Amino acid sequence: MNNLKRIDPRRPFTITAEGLRRITLGATAVAGSTELAAHGSTGSTHREHAKPRRTTAAAQRVLLVAAHADRGALDDHARQTLAAAALIADATTEVVLLVFGEFSGDAAALGADKLIELPMFDRRVFAPLDELNALAACVAAYAPAHIFLPDNATGDGDLGRRYAAAANASVATHVIEIDAAHVAVYIQTNTAFAVRALPEVVLLAPNAVDPKLPFVGAGERVVWRFDGEPASSKGVVRDLGIEEIDAAQLALEEADFIVSAGNGVSDVPAFERLATTLGAAIGASRVAVDDGKFTRDKQIGATGKTVEASVYIAFGISGAVQHLQGIKDCRHVIAVNLDASAPIAKRANLTVIADAQETIAALNEAAAAARTARGTGAALLNSTAVAEGALA
């Protein structure tokens, strides 16, 4: 019989400067215990330790970061751009975040000292001249030394180029290296660097900066109104709206919502029906493709497609390293798998321990019930309107 005592890995621990966990000896992880509070913090309370403010000095200059919000939040690229400005700001520099669209995130945690929100602008609305006028008005109000935008294809990159051209400002695009004195970009088909002094407008390439900051900003929300006359009212730009297409026709590399099937999915028609109901593009693991359940263009992974969806739901996929490589840039990953120790569970933001096929069937039933309830409600509203018309 083995009488060796094992150390409970859930006991209170501290984090060393190297990022290693060190269990606090003599302490027992008992909920509500005063001993726990006396001997150190648990992992959860450690994460709650407040980060220091980057600066409390009076601001003498401003760095302005502009970006579009997506459903109330900044994407990874925008957070990296904000972090870049915060990291190169000195003690007397204030970082101002200008958000086009509604923003419900924590601006302080992202490194911003001031937040200006323009909810009238949305990523789904094409108003480039109005956004340019708003950015120019904000620049006039705060006189920033430098302006930072993520260099993407969803509005920010275009806005940065438009502003640089309109203001005749110096600009650097696709910036992959930055500090307080210079920026660097790739040239000659990514075989050499070009370096220059920090320009007035910086368009940052993705993954150039780690968005995790060791400090926080002030996070002050500023009430600032943009009262410029809409360019759309002058007939310069007319927004024709967004054209809706079937998600199945969308290339996986461009899809924002993907449901993916693995070996655990046996009823392919039910899976495809769920994808249609959710309005999601369809992906698959290599095993499912090799079995002939899906065509090769649906394969996701190192030997297939690399995707960047906001939401990726994996049904019955164990998560081989090649598949995980294909979804590394997805924002939210949900895994449905019977094996709680499957590799994809470590990558997933949410793991549902259940049979993939049963979960798909349950979701289809729930969707059908919701459609029926909605149809019944609409019928009741229509009948009520008819009755009121008859009484009138």
Automatic annotation (TrEMBL):
GO MF entry, a single one: flavin adenine dinucleotide binding
SUPFAM superfamilies reported for this sequence: Adenine nucleotide alpha hydrolases-like, DHS-like NAD/FAD-binding domain
Keyword annotations of the record: Electron transport, Transport
Source taxon at top rank: Bacteria
Residues in Electron transfer flavoprotein alpha subunit C-terminal domain copies: 252-328
Electron transfer flavoprotein alpha/beta-subunit N-terminal domain: residues covered: 62-212
Pfam families in UniProt: ETF, ETF_alpha
Annotated GO biological process: fatty acid beta-oxidation using acyl-CoA dehydrogenase
Family statement: Belongs to the ETF alpha-subunit/FixB family.
Name of the protein described by the UniProt record: Protein FixB
Species, as recorded: Paraburkholderia sediminicola
Encoding gene per record: fixB
